[in-house]
Structure prediction request, 334 residues.
Amino acid sequence: MTAVNPTLADLTSRLTTEGKVDPNIVEILNETNEMLADLTMVEATGVTENVTTVRSGLPEVAWRQLNYGVQPSKSKTKQVSDSIGMLEAYAEVDKKLADLNGNKESWRLSEDAAFIEAMNQAFQRAVIYGDIAKDPSRIMGLSTRFSVPNTSKAKDKPENAINVLNAGGTGTNLTSIWLICWSPRTVFCTYPKGLPAGLQAQDLGEVTLDDADGGHYQGYRSHYEWNVGLVVRDWRYIVRIANVDIDALKNDASTGANLIDLMTDAEELLPNQAEGRPVFYCNRTIRAFLRKQIRDKTNVNLTFENVAGKQITTFDGIPVRRVDAITNAETKVA
Prediction:
């Protein structure tokens, strides 16, 4: 039975060996990218893009009087197309070295872990900061979509500006906190139609490799491929707390951003938490300050819960994940 709101791990667990997605690889990805444990995976409508119909306006309703009719109306919708990015890498190891290590396949996977991690970080950076206007080969990330704060006086500011909270930072060491409610109806990641989800590995077997001086030797080559896109179907289920000045933060929130208040405000902006899987994302610097600011607050619900054998930090019952792809050197959102 297919999960209603499946994660990458959910999809991979149902694949056979012929599915070309190694569960060990998914475990490696989850260990180094906490967002992967939450994001929803949905098969795209196409191979290179996903086309989604988004409701952009509600229908008109009316109070009816006896003997009077009501004018028909309909909701407003628009189609949005999101491209699917293609990440690829080749990993090569010396055949003799691999054979000498006994369990050849396990050793090769351990050696390839660096390539897997590099792709993992590239994917995570693209989800946060990807901009197809600057690099068409990537996907459109969240920061590019949520780039104007609610405090902006711009006349043509996007409607999602209401979900961009301004933490007031003006320095050069700025960062953001994200609240995302994942589901197929709100925001999700896609994979090409008819293909497996997640990072795929193909063993290309024994090949002849060249050293730096042009010499030949036998080796093993692996090909890694990850096709993924990001779809924001309902912007109301994403909140960005922007312009958090790292230099101004204090443990008692006497200066700089009050993380507790801002995260509480972000929660209240979500129309309905039950609509999906809400999660906060921040880097290690912010999560450390959050724990310090909350330490002496007896009325704030910051707890540690055991989920699948791991200790998870939660704020008002919402997980707070660490994503170090969120930098401390963001440009001011203004």
Notes: Helices lie at 8-12, 23-32, 95-100, 104-129, 142-145, 259-269, 284-294. Residues 16-21 have pLDDT under 50 and may be disordered. Residues 85 and 139 are 6 Å apart (CA to CA). The longest helix spans residues 104-129.
